[in-house]
Design brief:
Strand order of the largest sheet: 2-3-5
Largest sheet: 3 strands, antiparallel
Number of strands: 7
Number of domains: 2
Helix content: 40-55%
Distance between the termini: 41 Å
Shape: elongated
Order of helices and strands: HHHHHHEEEEHHHHHEHHEEHH
Structural class: mainly alpha
Length: 424
């Protein structure tokens, strides 16, 4: 790989060097021609009539057909020789230049995307101002809450999720839709021209390329989640986590909402509990009445549907179906559960949609959460609807789970859908 990159760089450098030499030689020739003509010009010694070219006697035929003709032919031969030798040398290396451009294409997009992501003071569009440097999560500037009539209620500080795991749960196309159209009702604006934003399609692609370059591996993400769960449960650094404990499922459901870990990117509450994203942020004025905007019980619904109305069996027939839904998320137009139809906004917390090798795409545990983590949070979600009949441990449930709901083909006509957008 190093040898290929070195050869590419050398080829590109050679092409550039040949081009520079041709340009320099051409420039010298032009300058020399101008200097010679100036020096050969007669100084003004009398009237304009004596200097007017059409009044001066020109060269005799012997001079025109002799030395001057030979000189003109000689210079023409030199220029032809330069062209005949220089252009083939330049184009001989064109394949190397093209190969170098292809090999550095992704790197070029990443560099451009990093400049778009950068803070405003560095010339960027300030993605880093909300989502943190290198997308580790942060806080958005104060966001204004309004009532039904558009009147001011308060400004709140909204948690901005980490973006260094976004491609562990969303596909690039789903991420592109979020960037282009934003998240209505949140500080996330539309950035793409199609959504009314300032960025072109290519700039959105460059931004996605940069976000792709900062992604954590699935192993790293799961390790960070487990460490954060231990910390919020008050366990020791190497203590074993009991994924069957309802308290563990609750922590996972609200992970980072209070502590700010990863901007709440791993949390289900960000979408399924109204006001969760700003519940622990700053509020101005401090005495603003936000009872209609936050402080609601877990899973009562927001950007995503409510989980407190008997998600089993109303939305899903079994805990295994719910686990599969949390694992794989939704795909646009595809059916899931009981009459649900996907919008692509519910991420798959246990399945990486952008694996380079498609043969590993369906392997368990290649996403942000392990199967045990997903089982834990799914059992907690089921308990929000008073479902208390689930007694099996997470190890047995994940081993017994089978694919039954997310592979249904999209309807061609008619059909119904109870799905609201799930991801916020």
């Amino acid at each position: 790989m190093t040898s290929l990159l070195l050869n590419t760089v050398v080829a590109a450098t050679t092409v550039k060097a040949v081009g520079v030499v041709i340009a320099v030689v051409t420039g010298i020739a032009v300058v020399a021609y101008i200097v010679i003509n100036i020096r050969q010009g007669r100084p003004e010694i009398a009237s304009e009539i004596e200097l007017a070219p059409n009044r001066k006697p020109y060269y005799e035929d012997e001079a025109l057909e002799g030395p001057r003709l030979n000189r003109a032919l000689a210079w023409g031969l030199v220029l032809i020789a330069i062209t005949a030798v220089g252009l083939p040398l330049y184009w001989l290396n064109e394949p190397g230049r093209m190969s170098g451009a292809i090999d550095t294409f992704d790197e070029t997009f990443v560099n451009r995307g990093s400049r778009l992501f950068a803070p405003t003071e560095e010339g960027g569009y300030n993605c880093a101002g909300c989502h943190g440097a290198e997308g580790v999560g942060g806080q958005a500037p104060p966001f204004t809450l309004t009532d039904d009539d558009g009147g001011f209620v308060a400004t709140v500080t909204w948690r901005a999720p980490a973006l260094n795991t976004v491609l562990l749960r969303f596909s690039e196309e789903e991420l592109r839709e979020i960037l282009v159209y934003g998240r209505p009702g949140t500080p996330m604006p539309a950035w793409g021209a199609e959504g009314g934003g300032p960025l072109t399609t290519q700039q959105i692609d460059e931004l996605i390329a940069y976000i792709g370059s900062i992604q954590l591996t699935a192993d790293r993400a799961r390790t960070e989640v487990e460490d954060a769960v231990r910390q919020e449960l008050g366990l020791g650094e190497d203590a074993e986590v009991d994924w069957n404990d309802p308290a563990t499922g609750k922590v996972l459901f609200n992970l980072g909402i209070e502590s700010g870990f990863a901007g709440g990117a791993y949390s289900c509450a960000r979408c399924h509990t109204k006001g969760a994203s700003f519940q622990y942020g700053a509020v101005a004025p401090e005495d603003a009445d936000l009872s209609e905007y936050m402080g609601f019980p877990d899973g009562t619904g927001a950007f995503g549907f409510s989980l407190t109305s008997g998600v089993i069996p109303r939305q899903f027939l079994s805990i295994e179906d719910l686990i599969e839904f949390v694992t794989e998320g939704t795909e646009y137009g595809m059916l899931y559960g009981q009459r649900g139809q996907g919008s692509g906004r519910m991420p798959g917390f246990g399945d990486n949609p952008d694996d380079a090798d498609d043969t590993t795409d369906d392997e368990p545990g290649d996403g942000m959460f392990t199967p045990e983590m997903i089982c834990s949070v799914a059992k907690y979600e089921a308990s929000l609807g008073a479902e208390t009949s689930i007694t099996k441990g997470c190890a047995r449930i994940t081993a017994d789970a089978t694919s039954t709901t997310s592979t249904t083909e999209a309807p061609t006509t008619g059909g119904s859908a109870d799905e609201e957008p799930e991801e916020g």
